[in-house]
Amino acid sequence: KAGVTQTPRYLIKTRGQQVTLSCSPISGHRSVSWYQQTPGQGLQFLFEYFSETQRNKGNFPGRFSGRQFSNSRSEMNVSTLELGDSALYLCASSLEVPYNEQFFGPGTRLTVL
Amino acid sequence: SQQGEEDPQALSIQEGENATMNCSYKTSINNLQWYRQNSGRGLVHLILIRSNEREKHSGRLRVTLDTSKKSSSLLITASRAADTASYFCATATGANSKLTFGKGITLSVRP
């Protein structure tokens, strides 16, 4: 099976712009989660989607949003970018059963100038 | 807030030696998972241990879980230079897939 794919792999944006990141889960996986990784805060949970519904949300401002499509692919959007949004954004997928292992994609490296 | 806290923060060993990494957490969990990350790339899932399990093995990896002490350890036997990476423990609580990660351990294996 193909792994989790994320596009694009690298992005450079300027403050105030918005960005959309895409994630395709492993075939058959219905749960998609997003994480932000920074040197200062480490890995932090953004949100999780299951069957097109947001099932859980982390402690991030409303500028961070996401959605999931009927084919389980997911996108996350960050509006009005700030310098502090520079990070590695990781997507993970898992089977629908809770408590399963999550499989991560290679990440999207976002740099905000 | 961090649920998992790994110890030590950095570990340097010689190829062939064993590496032991520890993780402590604060609240009750459903499972604990260990991941590896190479140079800011994606996370690679290593092993999952459920709250009702005490020990699991996978190849050169051995994970233990002590729920009474809220701690876990990851042992990598006969380490190789390719094991050089950051290692994270992550805990799952509640009826969802959210993982809470520790800050990670940097393992350097010298050839």
Characterization of the model:
The complex is a heterodimer of chains A (113) and B (111). Chain A is globular, with a radius of gyration of 13 Å. Chain A has 113 residues and is an all-beta fold. The N and C termini of chain A lie far apart (37 Å). Chain A has no helices and eleven strands. Chain A is 0% helix and 53% strand. Chain B has 111 residues and is an all-beta fold. Chain B is built from no helices and eleven strands. Chains A and B meet through β4, β5, β9 and β10 of A and β4, β5, β9 and β10 of B.
Uncertain residue segments of chain B: none
First-last Cα distance of chain A? 37 Å
**Large-scale geometry of chain B:** globular
Which oligomeric form is depicted?
heterodimer
End-to-end span of chain B in angstroms?
A: 36 Å
Of all chain pairs, the largest interface belongs to: A-B, 28 and 26 residues
Query: How many whole angstroms does the radius of gyration of chain B measure?
Result: 13 Å
Helical fraction of chain A equals: under 10%
Structural topology:
The complex is a heterodimer of chains A (113) and B (111).
Chain A: E1 5-7, E2 10-13, E3 19-24, E4 31-38, E5 42-50, E6 53-57, E7 64-68, E8 74-78, E9 87-94, E10 103-104, E11 108-112
Parallel strand pairs in A: 2-11
Antiparallel strand pairs in A: 1-3, 3-8, 4-5, 4-9, 5-6, 7-8, 9-10, 9-11
Chain B: E1 5-7, E2 10-14, E3 19-24, E4 31-37, E5 43-50, E6 55-58, E7 61-66, E8 71-76, E9 85-92, E10 99-101, E11 105-110
Parallel strand pairs in B: 2-11
Antiparallel strand pairs in B: 1-3, 3-8, 4-5, 4-9, 6-7, 7-8, 9-10, 9-11
Give a brief outline of the structure.
Chain A contains no helices and 11 strands. Chain A has 113 residues and is mainly β.
